[in-house]
Amino acid sequence: MLLTLFTGIGVQAESTPKAQFKDITITTSKTHLLLFGTITNSHRTELEQALHSGIPMQFTFFIELLRIRENWPDEELVSMEFNHTLKYDTLKEEYQLEQGEQKNRKFTYKSLDEAMRAMNDINGLRVIRLSKLSPDNSYELRIKAELFKKTLPMNLHYLIPFISMWDLETDWFTIEFTY
After folding, report:
1. Spatial contact of 85 and 118, defined as CB atoms under 8 Å apart
2. What is the DSSP letter of 165?
3. Comparing C-alpha atoms, which of 145, 102, 103, 99 is closest to residue 118?
4. Helix (H, G, I), strand (E, B) or coil at 120
5. Can you tell me the distance from the alpha carbon of 99 to that of 85, in angstroms, rounded to the nearest whole number?
6. Cα(119)–Cα(57) distance, rounded to whole angstroms?
7. Can you give the pLDDT of all 179 residues of the chain as single tens digits?
């Protein structure tokens, strides 16, 4: 079985590095297409302060898989969304991570660095059964994450448009491959 990957590299010049995906890998098991990847530059002081104040930190991941068809609209095969939620237990002085893609499995960490590494990782996500893919076809996998959404109560953010500048999210990262 041959799996060919094409990735794009973008350069961005900003004073604060933008959160983005890196080390994205698509591979196969005997039965599924698997996704691995990491978000970089997600650590922000305001997120850490909120976490230590008792507010859970939540990253929302969006995954799409499309079959690319010439002269026809692309066919959406997968559209999924899941969360990584990190909480800090002040009494035990430990971090608890719940990963939605692993049936809300919970992990415990003693250090924030360890917890954030796990928070940023997608590790072997089953995207689709291989039996649903057609050999020698082209596919596009897209991934995005929302790391922080600051909103106002009662939809006031629609009245104050600049509130979105506080949002922290990655751009869509796209991988094209042939299965």
Report:
1. no
2. G
3. 99
4. helix
5. 7
6. 9
7. 545 454 444 444 445 678 889 989 999 999 999 999 999 988 778 778 888 988 899 999 999 999 999 889 999 999 999 999 999 999 999 999 999 998 889 999 999 999 999 999 999 999 999 999 999 999 999 999 998 755 445 554 455 454 444 468 899 999 999 98
Q: How far apart are CA 175 and CA 144, in angstroms?
A: 12
Give me the DSSP letters along 41-52: S---HHHHHHHH
- Provide DSSP, 74-119: PEEEEEEEEEEEEEEETTTTEEEEEEGGGTTEEEEESSHHHHHHHH
How far from 148 is each of 17, 35, 153, 165, CA to CA, in Å?
A: 15, 23, 16, 11
Counted residue by residue, the chain has a size of: 179
Residue 162 phi, psi dihedral angles, 5° rounding = -75, -5
Report yes or no: 33 and 127 within 8 Å, Cβ to Cβ: yes
Distance CA 129, CA 150 (A): 36
**pTM tops 0.90:** no
